[in-house]
Fold this sequence. Notes:
Helix content is about 80%, strand content about 0%. The chain contains 16 helices and no strands. It has helices at about 1-10, 10-25, 30, 35-45, 55, 60-90, 90-105, 110-115, 120-145, 155-180, 180-205, 210-215, 215-240, 245-255, 260-270, 280-300. α4 packs antiparallel against α11 (about 180-205) and α6 crosses α13 (about 215-240). It is globular. The two termini are about 30 Å apart.
Amino acid sequence: xxxxxxxxxxxxFIFLFALGLGLLFPQxxxxxxxxxxxxxxxxxxxxxxxxxxxxxxxxxxxxLPAVAGIAMSYLLLGNFIIALSAAFIREDNxxxxxxxxxxxxxxxxxxxxxxxxxxxxxxxxxxTVGAYxxxxxxxxxxxxxxxxxxxxxxxxxxxxVLQLVALPLLLSRLLIWKGWNLKLEPVxxxxxxxxxxxxxxxxxxxxxxxLMGLPGALLPVALIAFASTFLLGFLIKLIGRFFHVSAxxxxxxxxxxxxxxxxxxxxxALTFLSRESVLPATMGTFFMIFYVMWLDFRKx
Length: 300
């Protein structure tokens, strides 16, 4: 039974199991979809328990991470995605899908993944918040400039910040105040992994037909997704080590500079564009999962 317990608590097994189940048996994804937002809120609540209250009382220390979040997600990753898609994508709907990917803020999962990979949780949190606040201006500007239409209400981004950043932070303070964080600590990692199982299964299952139905378009999209995670992450780490950036902050910078909120990008594409335009976000989700697993395997 020890091997089974080890398997059911192994993060990489849980992630791969979610992907495989979503591809082979996607039927339940519609039922689990309403559970993804509460699941992500819980993931972020458990992840931000590691952030002490004293850190939140130092606003001056939060400015640089917020600026770094904007720089990594938009100036670096956003431009990288746009440049590669302009060079290699000829199909208009796919191009628009990549524009949306470049325009959205970083993945909320940057925060829990930073904690999992022994990054700087505070830096990741406020880097993400900064990028979301910057996205209130940058997202519509990028979309209008490159696609020519306003596809998202900025208030939707405010709502996302409140639900997936502010609420988990408040809930984590409540857990700390009650002392429940100490009781949850031994099982926190396993709970987070299985909450991610629900989220990953749902994302895979909902997009299973797109992944299986457009094989000809997959290669260039997959290459861009690979380059914007594995290749760009390698370059960020190389440059960070050259400038002697501390390992924990560098881990958070790598995540901020390689992971976009593919859920927002895919939702916008599906709502306002075509099925084909969802493919970049869907492929990005897959490479994000494998990239985080790779970082977990390679972490010092």
